[in-house]
Specification:
By secondary structure, the chain is α/β, with parallel strands linked by helices. 50% of the residues lie in helices and 10% in strands. The structure holds zinc ion.
Length: 407
Amino acid sequence: MKHISIFCITALVLVLSPENSYAQRKKNVEKIHHGAYVIDTHTDAPMKLVDSYFNMAERHEAPESRIDFPRLREGDVDAVFYGLFTGQRERIPENYDRAYRLANQMIDSTYAAIERSPDMVAIATSAGDIISISKQNKTAICLGMENGFPLAKDITRIGEFYKKGVRYITLCHTSNNDICDSSTDPFGSENNGLSSLGKAVVVEMNRLGMIVDVSHISDKAFYDVLALSSVPVIASHSSARALCDHPRNLSDDMLRALAKNDGVIQICILGDYIVVADTTMVNYQKIKELKSKYNNWKFINDEERQRAWRAYDSIDHMFPPVLPTIAQAVDHIDHVVKVAGIDHVGIGSDFDGGGGLADCADVADYPKITAELLKRGYSEKDIDKIWGGNFLRVFRAVEEEAKALSR
Ligand SMILES: [Zn+2]
């Protein structure tokens, strides 16, 4: 009897002790987060490397920077895509050249940064690499290209960038290009979706084993890609249009089509794609003024681009935007799960390209997303799929198709 009562009291103390349950919950979050392959499919980290000789091996603070190698380790991140972003400019020879050179500069500086920190990171060019680098307790750095502008209508450049380690191409950015229409070009459609060059690009990417990224492209181009691609595709950083009506986000019909293609949408945690922008916010108005001053980010030269990004940073600093929360971002995950299923959703932060939430400022904060998913009742298996399992499935399918095609 005495034993039973001691047992009962101990159990009661354990149950009632908030500190203990908090510690247990934290431990559980850490365990599940560590057990999952945590993969972020879109960041703009290389822009910092090119613009300001940013030291990736040093720890920085948000909001000025949201990714560096120490924080990738802190956030227990298994893989992250470094986006080779080139803004769309007027399609004249010198701008094609500039985009090509900038993409190569970003590749070179990313490799150089990785080589200087072999204890923390390694380059990954396959799904298998991601797994083996994770097993060495390092973060795998993968390369993706945001905007096919550097291809300059030359299909052979896809193979050239593939050899340099690039594993996805976001076909366009905020304006139309030679490959396809953009979802946000102020002048509307130019190619009626995917152009004939764009069709050849998709076929070549399938052949090589490069993932087609449908983020940013117009709805018509999206359906054209799905009709043509022989393998699943990704939206590396897009959210759900039903919750935030932005043309960059995917409608429910598009989500269902993506599920049918066995692809994956990686929820973009950039404020404007999570909640409809509050146009009365000072930050919103200042950024809008800046955008029109710089011709909608269509820069004339590199100096101008650097000046614009510096001005952007200082606006964010002086008039911090009111950012959405992790809970609001996870609402998008819930929505995709409801419409397309648990096998078709992941996360692509857009960090250092505008991404960031009030309570998820940088890659070190990722366990907080895991905590929210757990709170909402997602199982360990579900969380593993969301963080990386779904993306890895697509990556492997693309690799296998390329192998089959080369036989
Ligand atoms: Zn983007």
